[in-house]
Amino acid sequence: MKQQRRNARTGLNYLFLILVGLIMVYPLIWLFASSFKTNADIFGSSRLLPSTYVWDSYRLGWQGTGQYGFQDFFINTLLLVIPTVMFTVISSVIVAYGFARFNFPFKTLLFSVMIATLMLPNASVLIPRYILFNKLGWLDTYLPFIVPAAFATGAFFVYMMIQFIRGLPRDLDEAATIDGCNSFTVLTRVLLPLCKPAIFSVGLFQFMWTWNDFFNSIIYISSVKKFTVSLGLRLSLDTSSAVSWNQVLAMSVVSIVPCILLFFFTQKYFVEGISTTGLKG
């Protein structure tokens, strides 16, 4: 009798989780299904499946309506995102290693200033950054995204790495030093292999945030030939003719595929990094 109750309770729990999962995934299902609908179906019917299928929405959406196709926006986004993610990971690891393992003058003050930057609203630094990048001649380039990433300006990522490195035993550093390793070798050969969960978490967060970034992209990038995916989607709504919403939704599906694939390929390290970063230290 107790076993039957336990099985029934487990079945109800799974049913509840399935229902919640369907509610959360339904917008994505609707997005994919609507990419095959006509405009009349999208706005005139609440049905999930289309009454009339449009099979060329992905092909036409990928070709684009102007001089540049969606493949150009896709390539531009990769040219922006990949260096930004790489420099973010490298710089965050180096700065976090310094804070977590070394003592130097004004360490506490510098750490406090870094944490304080997390409290700054993005709007408060938007105008000063724009003026600075304008004087440097970086507007309408990807440098406003790439160069700051190379100098560990992401305090959230640095703090995440600090917490993870602090959780690693210092005995590892001492043993490697006895074996003849210097501080840089300790980082590259001993700590970095152990920091994979945190590194993957930092890379995944930065990839998704930069890939989906619309606000900063529209401020710093003005040439259509340098538009990213998010700006390319917005550009398709600026046409003088009627908007083919199935093509817009189709390219929206394509634009989220890299983030979804990256998450599923790295979810093991991502979940481990998130769960251990906040508990160690």
TrEMBL record:
<dbReference type="InterPro" id="IPR000515">
    <property type="entry name" value="MetI-like"/>
</dbReference>
<dbReference type="GO" id="GO:0055085">
    <property type="term" value="P:transmembrane transport"/>
</dbReference>
<dbReference type="Pfam" id="PF00528">
    <property type="entry name" value="BPD_transp_1"/>
</dbReference>
<protein>
    <submittedName>
        <fullName>Sugar ABC transporter permease</fullName>
    </submittedName>
</protein>
<keyword id="KW-0812">Transmembrane</keyword>
<dbReference type="GO" id="GO:0005886">
    <property type="term" value="C:plasma membrane"/>
</dbReference>
<feature type="transmembrane region" description="Helical">
    <location>
        <begin position="12"/>
        <end position="33"/>
    </location>
</feature>
<feature type="transmembrane region" description="Helical">
    <location>
        <begin position="73"/>
        <end position="97"/>
    </location>
</feature>
<feature type="domain" description="ABC transmembrane type-1">
    <location>
        <begin position="74"/>
        <end position="266"/>
    </location>
</feature>
<keyword id="KW-0813">Transport</keyword>
<feature type="transmembrane region" description="Helical">
    <location>
        <begin position="198"/>
        <end position="222"/>
    </location>
</feature>
<feature type="transmembrane region" description="Helical">
    <location>
        <begin position="242"/>
        <end position="265"/>
    </location>
</feature>
<comment type="similarity">
    <text>Belongs to the binding-protein-dependent transport system permease family.</text>
</comment>
<dbReference type="InterPro" id="IPR035906">
    <property type="entry name" value="MetI-like_sf"/>
</dbReference>
<feature type="transmembrane region" description="Helical">
    <location>
        <begin position="109"/>
        <end position="131"/>
    </location>
</feature>
<feature type="transmembrane region" description="Helical">
    <location>
        <begin position="143"/>
        <end position="162"/>
    </location>
</feature>
<keyword id="KW-1003">Cell membrane</keyword>
<keyword id="KW-0472">Membrane</keyword>
<keyword id="KW-1133">Transmembrane helix</keyword>
